[in-house]
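Two proteins, back to back. First:
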Amino acid sequence: MNALPRGAYPAMITPFTTDGAIDYPAVEGLLRWYEKLGCSGVLALCASSETEMLSLEERVSLAKFIAEHKGNLVIVASGHISNEWEDQVEELNAMANTGIDALCLIVSQLNLHGETEDEYIENIKKMMDAIENKDMPLGFYEKPGQFNRNLSEKIIRFCADTGRFVFLKETSCDPDIIASKIRAAEGSPFGIYNANSVLLYQSLKDGAAGFCGIMGNFHPDLYQWLCVNHDKNPEAADKIANYIMTIGETGAQYPASAKYHVNCYGAPMSTYLRRTGNAPEMSPATAARLHAVEKMVNEARAYIASL
């Protein structure tokens, strides 16, 4: 397997119409916004996508649409939510046949019984055998929640040695743990993509492949620039990293806040959430903060343009 491109992979949101259906024109508009801002790719069908609120039929349909309209983006997708093994195999095989570029397993779903390292590796082997498309690059997503675990160096090395794994959304928020995973995957296509904005710059200097987080729905171009240029212009990278560390927090009401932001600055969409069954209004404080952050982002963009 070849490594995926370095850079920013936003945790993709799912736009809905005000009656709760997937808003496919808005999905395409969102993809074009990610593309316009230079993202290397996206992580689709993840927590930000409200994946657990989608049926398997909807997940497959959405993944196919994203793959068909990806443009220059690399599409990593999950859609892996079930607890029963047979159901997991069914949904992963369905997702693997949608045209996506890499299939992302959810760490917790192979850890439902608190497996030891060796037992967890056996679960990975079993799932690799069960996925029918042996040419499909694989990834892992350390999705925060019950049964999540930080993949150990031993597990990372196993995945790296298979040659099948190309992507890890890393969520430990610990620079030493992130660095240890980077070392464990060294020399393989297995790229470590940090989800933490504050720790991103340090992880890039340690060898991380890029960023995969929720802030990619607000100013992904800053993350993309830092991922690609952090070692080319250290003075500028320090400045952009400081911007990112300062504004790298959405505040309340996510993912509705991301939809509000994209609607204002990227592509038309509603703030409707499947999990609540409505389109929440932004609180005055949240709205004010999002608009203030966009002004700061534009300052950073102007600085980059001046280099």
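And the second protein:
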Amino acid sequence: MSEFIEAGKIISAHSFKGEVKIQSWCDSAEFLTRFKVFYLDGNGENCLNINKIRVSNEKEKLLIVSFDEIDSEEKAVMLRNKVIYIKKQDANLSEGTFFISDLTGLPVFDFDDKNKKYGVLSDIFHNGASDVYVITTDKKDKNNKDVDVLIPNVPAFIKKINLIDGIFITPIEGMFDE
């Protein structure tokens, strides 16, 4: 697991003072207001110290940010289309909250029969009501492609998540049948 994760993208300069507009890739734009530093690479070498940060549009997940190192519109324009990263340890997530990158690849087991493995979590997407977990099974379809099963991330299905042991679910009957 990487120490740094992608958190958004600088989409434009915002003012002659060097502010930039950032599109947040997090659950909310507000989440990024907790940070004091953003990174321009996934290894932590290129950091930008946040001077001021505010949510511009929560619905569109937009932020306006000024950095100590950027003091002109010309410098801000040079950051356009740069991906910003955050350091995971700076995130201070609440209990039961995880980064998608930490969950992807975890094995998925039956909650009642811990020896029954359904597959591996291969992706997560949001459908409007909740996140949906994509579980890739070891089964193949008639075209020899992996069979995926979609499970909503709701307590009725997702019973326990442990970053070491895996994800434990209670599927409905027939969900993993061919």
